Model the fold of this input.
Amino acid sequence: MAESLPKTPMLDELEKGGWPSFVKEIKLAAKKSPMAVDLLGLLERSYKEKIGHWKHGGIVGVMGYGGGVIGRYNDLPEVYPNISHFHTIRVNQPAGWFYKSDALRSICDIWEKRGSSLTNMHGSTGDIILLGTRTEQLEPIFAELSKVDFDLGGSGSDVRTPSCCCGMARCEWACYDTMRTCYDFTMKFQDELHRPAFPYKFKFKFSGCPNDCVASIARADMSIIGTWRDSIQMDKAAVTEYAKNGMDIQSEVVDNCPAKCMDWDGKELHIENSYCRRCMHCINVMPKALRPGKDRGATILLGSKAPIVEGALLSSVLIPFIKMEPPYKELTDIIDRIWELWCEEGKNRERVGEFIQRVGLGNFLEAIEVDPVPEMVAHPRENPYVFYEEYFEAGDEGSEEEEK
Amino acid sequence: MTDERRTDYGPPHYERFLPPIIKENYGKWKYHEVLKPGVMVHVSESGAHLYSVRAASSRLLSIEKIRAYCDLADKYCGGYLRFTSRHNVEFLLSDAKNIDPLIADLKKLGHPVGGLQNSISAIVHTQGWIHCHSAATDASGVVKAVMDDLLEYFTEMKLPGKLRIALACCLNMCGAVHCSDIAILGIHRRPPRVDHENLHKMCEIPNVSASCPTAAIRPAMVGGKQSVEVLEERCMFCANCFTVCPSMPLADPLNDGVSIWVGGKVSNARHEPMFSKLAIPFLPNNPPRWPEVTEAIRNLVELWAKNARKYERMGEWIERIGWPKFFRMSGIEFRKEHIDDFKHAGLTFKRSTHLTF
Ligand code: HEM
Ligand code: HEM
Ligand code: HEM
Ligand code: HEM
Ligand code: SF4
Ligand code: SF4
Ligand code: SF4
Ligand code: SF4
Done:
């Protein structure tokens, strides 16, 4: 088929250079896939014209599911007929993005037969993205994925596919079992994941420690970040070893501690743990000497999102510390109450973070029956316009002045 | 029963995909060390050693390439591999002898090894002209051009700290752009062009008006048809209206381009997580290699690398020296666009005399 490749002088330029080339990938796929051939042509055209050629998707999907497929059509179907439909399928990745080769090959085989042969490993939410197929292929693809035990991910106003860091599988700092929790939550919320019924999307991301390798504080409506309550575990001999090997513990570790809660007298390192902010810096720098404490769990934060619609937000603290053990009942009860409130009162396309901004965190907490604690704010309010909901009238019971 | 449809079964259980060495040492890892660029070892309480080799990938992968990864995994590590949150691929070895042959094979495939510790890892990015209707720039092409230029910082560990770059091709920001050391963000600069002919057939007019965060859209009769008008001076090019209504396209070759944001971070290490702030309001789309963008980013990386203290992320460095000094040192012109004028803009004004000269 090589002779039928369109001329793509601009894209060819991007085959050069040391970084892996996506153009080479499309050309690899184009050896067999006519869809990839047309994609090359269309993309070259976009490069020349400096504008995209994709239209809004209509509603496409598989029976029984409301999410998992992004409909996509190009605006020049006569010129690029093989990609007149080019729908994306989101496939729920295994927790931690671990694979065995046979499983990956089975997905490749399905996609070779029924799609463009192009993928994203992975989309920014975490799914395997199968990039480009036709409407009539959707049901057969789902049936074949099902045979190899892969299910679709979320899209639209539903629970989006949860994702997590590799946690206990390969990291000594995991303060709870991120992969298990991610799997358990994904399974518990299957209905909410496949059938959009929320005002807008809701994302979970699970990081095992405050390094937050899956960027949950920036990218998840609910961010579940591992932490510990007791003291950092210290191996004094290993600290000495680091110092002996030339590490300047004062400047590299102590001076960078945001809590200023460490002391180094040239021989011994002392941490005043009740002031430690669990930032991970010292542990990151001396992994052989320092480890998170033993009383481990997670901090739950809520509400991050990108600027659309009302401006960007980072997640903020909802529960300072909670043990993360199945069946996670305390947490899932709170999630149920959040969803109930947000589904009832939230506006169309209002993320939970925006909803909280609109109704006020104080009111939100009251409605979901969580007590306010100082860990939830960077500082108490500066503005004196407090909305009190009730006031006393002369003669009211409990009005001290009048009682005298 | 046989024709009953199977749904809601979720992803395969991850345990099926964990190599034996990980199953045996799950939750028992004691410490890790970076042995050389792209290679780290995790040591377990049990004494087991697990070697991870991290290689760059283009995120957009053909099944041919995935199969090639599978072949390498079969050859060197029992078929086990994983992908990272930044689209890299990692091979999980229990035998240290396999590290160098694997790296050699990866290089032959065109996939450099690196991205650990004080390096620039792969760029988190989105779809762009490959697949999305909303794009103000391409994603894969810009990423390829920028990383070709910065390759040495991926394959070596010569920076003061970590540096994370992300790209989103429109303000929907499907990648978590706004908390990156350097963010590349596609922007539109021309208000939507209303397709008055078709709007009433395609869109619910009240929804379209309600979608605009600045209330720039009003229902109107145009040429005898129900449509909307846009108060152009109120438009901030967010494309929210286009998201709910295809008859309001913003994409425009003359006005679309790229903005550069700096100083965000996600990790809690030392400083709390931060949003990225606007450094360069606009650079043109100049495919296939976006030279203005690659040059601006290299300058930012090198300025930071030269001046930051050990471990100091871009945002921590700028916070220490102050933004006026950042603008003086970088030579970036400070303009009206740098000053926030959306909600809570006042919180971003300098409200003290702590200034450097
Ligand atoms: C109003 C807001 C948004 C709109 C209208 C929007 C729209 C879209 C569309 C149309 C696609 C499909 C792109 C394609 O494959 O053709 C997409 C993909 C995606 N979006 Fe969004 N998006 C929005 C916000 C977000 C946000 C806030 C996130 C994450 C925080 C996000 C994450 C993703 C991810 C992960 C993908 C998969 C594609 C990829 O990995 O590049 N989106 N979005
Ligand atoms: C045992 C140690 C660690 C392991 C196994 C680990 C693992 C990972 C992995 C696999 C990724 C995806 C990375 C990529 O593709 O480039 C990642 C990302 C990341 N890691 Fe780590 N990491 C570790 C330590 C750290 C440390 C010490 C920090 C910070 C000081 C950190 C901060 C981050 C951040 C900020 C990201 C990027 C998140 C994003 O923007 O998507 N990690 N980590
Ligand atoms: C201080 C600056 C900013 C910070 C700290 C910030 C932070 C974040 C975070 C944490 C996310 C979550 C991403 C995700 O859900 O994957 C996000 C998403 C996003 N950001 Fe930003 N951002 C900032 C500025 C901006 C700006 C200036 C824009 C656009 C002009 C923008 C557009 C977006 C979009 C569209 C998303 C996808 C959001 C979603 O999940 O609904 N951000 N941002
Ligand atoms: C409804 C809200 C407020 C009212 C009615 C109010 C009223 C006043 C009044 C009457 C004065 C004395 C002016 C004078 O000396 O002639 C004053 C001074 C001052 N107020 Fe407020 N104030 C309010 C809120 C605030 C807030 C929220 C802050 C700070 C966050 C603030 C900071 C100050 C300061 C710094 C002074 C000067 C004190 C001094 O001269 O020693 N005010 N305010
Ligand atoms: S978030 Fe923490 S526990 Fe998870 S991989 Fe990163 S450093 Fe390890
Ligand atoms: S974890 Fe952070 S705050 Fe706590 S002692 Fe270490 S450097 Fe200080
Ligand atoms: S960032 Fe914008 S243009 Fe890019 S994939 Fe997401 S919605 Fe599409
Ligand atoms: S682009 Fe945004 S600001 Fe401009 S009219 Fe549309 S919704 Fe309003």
Observations:
- The mean pLDDT of chain B is 95.
- The radius of gyration of chain B is 24 Å.
- Residues A 382-384 surround protoporphyrin IX containing FE (ligand 4) (CB under 6 Å).
